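Quick log. Single chain, no ligands specified.
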Amino acid sequence: MSMDVQNYRRYGLVIKKILKLKNSICSIFDIRIGDGRGTLFWHDPWFENKPLISRDEFRGLKIRRDCAAATVHNIHNGLWVSVITRVLEGKRAIGHLNGLNICNMADVYLWKAEENGKIKSSAIWNVIRERGQIVSWASLVWSLKIIPRHRFILWLAFRGRLSTRDRILAYMDIPDANCVLSSGFAESIDHLLGGCFFALGLFGIFLLYSWEL
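-> predicted structure:
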């Protein structure tokens, strides 16, 4: 395997993730248009914090290469306006552009995540992180009263990802899938956390000890 192929496989996923975050990052800064020369009309989120090129309304519109590379300054001076206004969303963008105070100052990018002149990493993280469905057991698993190792094990258990013997048997031949603590029962997550007599006995001891404390 050549080095070029290896590098492509190594960095391909990283590049895809960066491109996926592009539209999310747009929501953490504002563009203040000055002369419009430093802002791309199609690709920068100068209008409603979303690039025009990514909007569904423009998918059927044939955009020439020179038009696709146009700046806000170019469009404000009348270039390709007749093409852009063929789409209703384009008319809205041009109307917004005509209402801006175009001046001789350079365009400015302002971070929304700033506080007292400093960028808040927590605000940026909340924008770029992938959000999943909120589950009822989240507060239990990620409680500060539980040590990190036990949090991780609980997280795997609630997601059905613990490497119990019944799961291992699905992709590997093992001599026995029964629980080693109570024979006759298949080792599964439900069994270990609810049906295993040995595990239930341990839980009872821990509960009694914690109650005495």
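The chain has two domains: 3-128, 138-212.
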